[in-house]
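Contributing new complexes? Match this layout with biliverdine IX alpha.
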Amino acid sequence: MTDTALDLTACDREPIHIPGAIQPHGLLLVADAESLRVVAGAGDIETRLTPDWLGADLATLIGQDVTALLAERSGRGSMIGAAVGTLVAGTSEQFHMVLHASEEHVLVELEPATTAPSSAATVLGWLDSMATAFERSGNLQALCEQAAVAFRTLTGFDRVMVYRFLDDESGRVMAEDRDPALHSFLNHHFPATDIPKQARALYVRNRTRAIPHAVYTPAILRPAGFERLDLSDVALRSVSPIHLRYMTNMGVAASASISIVKDGLLWGMIACHSMTPRTLAPDIRATASTLASSLARQIRAKEEAEGYRERLRLRSVEDVVVLKMATEGSAQRTAAAVGDDLRRMLASDGFALVQHGAVQRDGQCPDDRDVLDLVEWIRSRGTGDIVATHALSTLYPPAERYRSTASGLLAMPLIDEGAVLLWFRAERITEIEWAGNPHKATSGDPAEQLTPRTSFASWTEEVRGESRRWSLEEIEAGYRLRRMFHDSYASNRMRALNREL
Ligand code: BLA
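Output block (do not edit by hand):
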């Protein structure tokens, strides 16, 4: 196991949903679900609410008809939507109240109310105009840029980014809106370790979070015995100390993030930074969550539209190829006649057909010997299924020698003819801009494994051995071409049989 793998699992194991404490800017009351008497709490309840809270009746303590509120379990998860916007009076301040109910407990979060919530009509009007603007944006990139501006307007944070997860769970800043005085993270990549697995899982369930002060002393749940209370849905949940250190290392005084959940999966996040302490009030969090749902729907719509355009393009080229194929006889003759079309169709640098140990080629392919060895390896995988990779040498190390010609491979074995269709893409050397050296995502000191990196200065990595990726639509087109080869084999066989009869 490598050091990185060790660190990764250690990060993934931190039980962030049961920190046994909250962030001290708010108060938490825990009542028994049956009796509605307060059995635990956290924060400076004595000074800010009342000294006599433990054992008190929850409804009396917060001056709310808790039973009526609990009857309206309308929000996501266990949050009681009806309670959003309700104010509770403290000794010298007002609190926003957020209510959650589980089987055993009713949790009441009290967050200082420094601003009055906007009216529902204002919020709905704004959300509607944003949804229309999202819908009208021309493509995914334009949509993300619009979203960065919209979320900055809503939250008032200094730097707001649309952060998208990539295949390997690292991520990239797709769009950013920021105070011009701050440096930019646009297009920067962040390693997967920055947001560990359990945090990503929690952020699908719980869509918004705010850390108004990166430096604080956690307010411990009391009395003893509540250390393992599940705070998954609690906005005030105390944050992982590793992440707090991360924020400080980044020079960020406060952060907030909003999940972008597409088809039930965490597509990305809106990451917000503030250079001074700043919070996201519950009504703003609710608005942000709705705006993020609207964004996710539009992301899907843009992706679908882009896929549709790509399919249309591929289909029109396919029609030409099919016409030509119909007039040819053997697979070899077909490949010779349409090799160039097949290569161009899938935007490849080389196309080869391998059958009976012979290589028919078009454009830039590895040497015949290398192609035959490669086909041997494809067959040895035994799945009879396709290979589609943009980094062949990571799957098949001998390809390292000819990666400049063929870092990308789409291989379609023909089922009953022992033939293989191969498309090759040349290496495309790219530069990735990382926010800090990702290989220093954690400290090398084994005693200090759980330490975030200390520098977020741009760090450029040159990536070799990779080609442009195969799109889903291109892979689908590969499948259809394979089908056409089968059909043309079948009709050739029929013709041959007819001649024999
Ligand atoms: C959480 N990490 C987070 C969060 C973000 C990031 C946004 C959610 C909390 C928040 O809103 O601040 C990371 N912040 C980013 C990224 C960008 C950004 C990628 O602005 C880019 C735009 N962090 C580490 C290491 C570990 C780690 C090495 O660097 C683990 C060993 C852990 N990050 C970590 C944990 C959490 C976290 C545990 C969860 C915090 C919590 O919710 O308690």
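Reviewers usually confirm one structural detail per submission. For this one: Residues 282-326 form the longest helix (45 residues).
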